[in-house]
Structure prediction request, 589 residues.
Amino acid sequence: MEIKDLSFSYRRGKSLLTGLNLDIPMGRTTAIIGPNGSGKSTLLGVLAANYKPDAGSVILDGRTLAEYRPREIARKLAVVHQQNTAPDDLTVEKLAAFGRLPHRSLLSPEREADREAVEWALSCTDLQDKRKKPLAELSGGERQRVWLALALAQRTPVLFLDEPTTYLDIYYQYEMLELIRRLGKEHGLTVVMVLHDMNQAVHYSDHLIAMKAGQAVLQGAPEEVITAESVKAVYGVDVVVKNDPDTGMYIVPVRREYKGPH
Amino acid sequence: MKKTIWSFAAVLVLLLATVIWSVLRGSLQVTLPELITGLWTGTNENVAIIRDLRLPRVIIALFCGAALAVSGVLLQSVMRSPLADAGVIGISSGAGFISLTMVTIFPAMFFWMPLFAFLGGAAACLLVFSLSWKSGLQPLRLILVGIAVNATFTGLGQSFNYRGSYAITMVNMATTSIFNLKTWQDVQIIVLYGTIGLVLALLISPWCNVLVLQDKTARNLGMNVSRVRILVSAVAVLLAATATAIGGLIAFVGLLVPHIARQLVGSDHKVLIPFTALAGALLILLADTLGRTVLAPVEIPASIIMTVIGGPFLIFLLRKGEMNHGD
Prediction:
């Protein structure tokens, strides 16, 4: 996936993304990090064709996103949003089955391929036992997995996740990230996720993009682009970056006096 | 699943019983065998009167109830708010006002009344959408704007009251919904447009299931959200407008029935829409029949009964704070 001279603003004059040029490697996992308001979720929204760019283009499989019909895009890329809404009495199975919409007409019956895809998505996310459960009876981690199952049922080569770990406690955070990593590896998916936690981004991505004020300030392999200086430049925080033979690279903020907002 | 089947069975039995009771009871009373043989042979004078006066009323009450209730479900999915109702947010009063104006100016175009009502309802719906849209839908804002639009159209409609005696009877018929003096011609209109609307509603029920998710989710599933929203709204307006053109203004049906229906059969629109149609038909027929039998010969219009039940119910919904489907 290629992003060329991309600019986007919600309203005129207030630019959120300016002149972005990025490369997203196919078949790998890319993490987007950056401070609040840096435009990382907006970038994901533009990549997912939720927002139309003011200028520039996003190229997927040799065509710009604007050239695709909505349904075609939905067969190429699936998105797991940070916050989701669905009726409480909807069952796991039925929600996951929405993932088949891009592949069939709403009014036509389910085909064998649809059933298989839903089945596959439920087994990937370990929800087969819970298939008949309504959403209201699920834990936060399970609920997030159901939305992932919906995206997987779309059987797209590209998967986007907007802060997939935000509302989860640390156990479910790592469960989710491990699951995403495993799925990406096993099925050769192109995964793009917005993450808040730098350590998670470093550990769970092959490629890293750091955003600041609507611009991509870093991109490349995490081990190469993350340094104490670059983190300071992006977040304005002093950190120590260490390499440990057991855990790999990790980043720890250094305590310093608070000098007012940066 | 079991609950769903039982709910359908119960509402069907109640509906059938209410229809029979409603046809038999009133100022003229006949027995069921008398009615059946009378309708068959056409020799019983009482039955003939019932056929000409009461039967149209019963059929119109059924269709009005079904149309308004289903219109409520559709609006709720489009606006993603359980408080949306054609009567509350001004679609019915817009439909009533425009159809009344047009028919007053061109009395010969009576058969086109649902069309005028549709245009009026669509205008009101468009107003509500465009005035409450602020980078997305906000349920409460939408309801507030809707109430304002409703007040405007209701006021415009009522200003006809001051235009002379002829207009008063016209207005009263169309704004307070008395189902009496309905003819088989009215039945033809409501059955035709009502059936079209209800069948369309059933066909688009899978869309409604997707619309209750967020816009971005629906869009990522390849749905053209704006187009679907317009189509579903159009069906909702058609249903509300038809009901208003023939039955007059009845508020709260689209609020009450879908809410109860969701508790009984769940939120899957493929099941919810047919159930709501049946339950809405039952509710309005019940209200109308009670209205004309309890204090006979005085009649309480079904719309007034619905307002009396509906007002407190709206307060109840607001108190429950249930502004969104699910969470």
